[in-house]
Amino acid sequence: MTVEKIVKLSLLISIGLVLFIVESFIPFPIPWMKLGIANIVSIIALYIYGIKDALIVAFFRVVIGSLIRGILFNPIFIVAIGSGIIAVLIMGFVKFYFNRFFSAVGVSIWGAFAYNITQIVIYYFLIIKRPEIFNLVPLFLIITPVTGFITGFIALIVIEKGKGKILF
Amino acid sequence: MIYILKKLKIADFILILLLIMSGLFSSFYIYGNNNKNKKVIVELSGKVYGVYDLNSDRIIDLKGPQSRAKINIENGYIFVSESGCPQKICKRMGKKNRINELIVCIPNRLIIRIEGEMKNNYEFITR
Fold first, then answer.
1. pLDDT tens-digit profile of A9-45?
2. Are residues B76 and B102 in the same domain?
3. What is the pLDDT of residues A85-102, one digit of tens each?
């Protein structure tokens, strides 16, 4: 990995951290609901550098973000990092095999979907251990296209407008 | 902005539609009129008068200390349709079908409550 690449990835991670912190200030009516705008940087990294670098960005964003918010190594952190990595893997899979069909928005919705489902599964096995938690799945099915569309569209704007610019 | 919108592909919209549709259908299935295991308990003067199923329609006619009262179970809802008490608060409490909901008539010393296993009793919610 060249120095240039390290600097670029660090830049993406720090942008993601700022978004992550800003996002935690946005109030939402439903407590588990989040826009997931920090995921924008993972999508950008996935589209510009590939899945390996997207995984690096997602991993360090979650670890450092949890450190800042004071939730490092507690159960919420395990949920966040597990579902974050699964989401990037699914997005990479969709982008690699179905790039013809899905734009960044579709990839982002797949990522949001994977994130939410993994989150519920990890919550089920680690924390809540009651099958009633799967009653939340319909709610997430309705929410994910909305949040996934917003984050994916912002990522698409950055990818399209940023072509040939210094970061890329 | 417009040219970025054109970058979206058909499958994106199909995916959005599919997710929202499946979400709506499954939420109808899960959150919909789910009266399984719900029992209606009618108490009169502190004693259990009867336990009924919320799914089968019936009319319960009973005589309280003040007057007669008529309780209807209809389409998964329970309500007091007739009561001789002066203020008719029990009648105005409307139709109930959720667990732990109550209809109370003080003059007739009547308590109608719905019992069952709670589906969403969260230990905690965090973010």
1. 999 999 999 998 888 888 777 666 778 888 999 999 9
2. yes
3. 999 999 999 999 998 999
Domains of chain A (ranges, CATH numbers): 3-161 (1.10.1760.20)
Test the B interface: residue of A33, A76, A103 with most B CBs within 10 Å: A103
The whole-number pLDDT of residue A51 equals: 93
Integer angstrom CA distances of residue B78 from A111, B67, B68, B74, B92: 44, 19, 17, 6, 12
Nearest-angstrom CA–CA distance, B26 and A114: 18
| Structural domain of B24 | 2-31
Same domain, yes or no: B18 and B80: no
Nearest Cβ partner of B7 from A31, A138, A160?
A160
CA distance A65 to chain B (A): 14
Nearest to B39 by CA among B30, B56, B51: B51
What are the pLDDT tens digits along chain B (127 aa)?
Answer: 778 888 888 999 999 999 999 999 888 877 765 666 778 888 888 888 888 888 888 888 888 887 888 888 888 888 888 888 888 888 888 888 877 788 888 888 888 888 876 655 556 666 5
How many Å apart are CA B12 and CA A106, to the nearest integer?
A: 5
Q: Which of residues 1-60 of B touch A (CB under 8 A)?
A: 1, 3-4, 7-12, 15-16, 19-20, 22-24, 26-27, 29-31
Q: Do B120 and A149 touch (CB under 8 A)?
A: no
Domain count, chain B: 2
Number of A–B residue contacts, CB under 8 Å: 80
A35 close to A153: Cβ distance less than 8 angstroms: no
pTM, to two decimals:
0.71
A128·B9 Cβ contact <8 A: no
